[in-house]
Design goal:
- This protein is mainly alpha-helical.
- The chain is 71% helix and 0% strand.
- It folds into 2 domains: 67 residues; 149 residues, Orthogonal Bundle (Lysozyme).
- Helix 3 crosses helix 4 and helix 8 crosses helix 9.
- It is globular and about 45 Å long.
- The relative contact order is 0.09.
């Protein structure tokens, strides 16, 4: 059976952007070359100086777009070993393809670093809240992977997004992680934060936090097994 190489969507997007940037660069370079020749023939030194200022903004745009693409690659491809081990465990436990889990785990990794929140805690919450069903909705209206309440957290959405964005896996994890971080900060610790996140602050047994932390421990063990194999 012949093997077929298929580029993942992230790499296709990167290739497309690189091709577009190359086209733009060649167009600008051609324009600069023609204008330099004209300037030299006419003896206009000021024109040449102006061309130098034209090139700088182009270089800035190219650098910014390259940085954006590096961010996309990081968010969709570069899982660290700890997260890869947890992903394998989740894929088997919840019967979800690794391809579908990849952007979820990558988002948890990136957002966790930004918020100084353990990404495996985010993944554990997702497992308990929705079982990795991005379209899950509770009877009280909580939506998506982390069961975020839209009426309370519209302010955490990107400016251009509407309420339907809560069902987008990446956006839901980004918003849910912010809500979780706020809950932990307000309650002085992970257990109290988890209880508030679930709307169960009055539970003296802290059953929700115990469930999430038990799931996080299983994720840690799965990640550790990958490191030792």
């Amino acid at each position: 059976m012949f093997a077929t190489t298929i580029l993942p969507p992230a790499m296709l997007r990167v290739s497309s952007v690189v091709y577009t940037l190359a086209q733009k660069f060649l167009m600008v370079a051609g324009l600069v070359f023609v204008m330099v020749l004209i300037g030299l023939q006419a003896g206009h030194a000021g024109l040449i100086d102006g061309l130098k200022s034209l090139i700088s903004p182009v270089e800035v745009v190219v650098a910014e777009e390259e940085a954006a693409e590096e961010s996309v690659e990081e968010a969709t491809v570069a899982l660290n070993p700890r997260m890869r081990g947890a992903l394998d465990y989740v894929s088997k436990r919840y019967r979800v393809s690794t391809e579908a889990l990849q952007p979820i785990f990558a988002t948890a990794q990136v957002v966790g670093r930004q918020l100084r929140l353990d990404p495996l805690l985010i993944i554990a919450v997702i497992g308990v809240e929705s079982g990795f069903n991005p379209f899950s909705q509770s009877v009280v209206g909580a939506q998506g992977l982390m069961q975020v309440m839209p009426r309370f957290h519209m302010d955490k959405l990107p400016e251009e997004a509407d309420q339907s964005a809560f069902l987008d896996p990446v956006t839901n994890v980004q918003v849910g992680a912010k809500v979780l971080k706020e809950s932990i900060r307000r309650n002085g610790g992970i257990e109290g934060g988890l209880q508030q996140f679930a709307g169960a602050s009055n539970d003296p047994d802290r059953r929700y936090s115990s469930k999430v932390l038990a799931e996080k421990q299983r994720l840690e063990q799965a990640a550790q097994r990958l490191r030792t194999t």
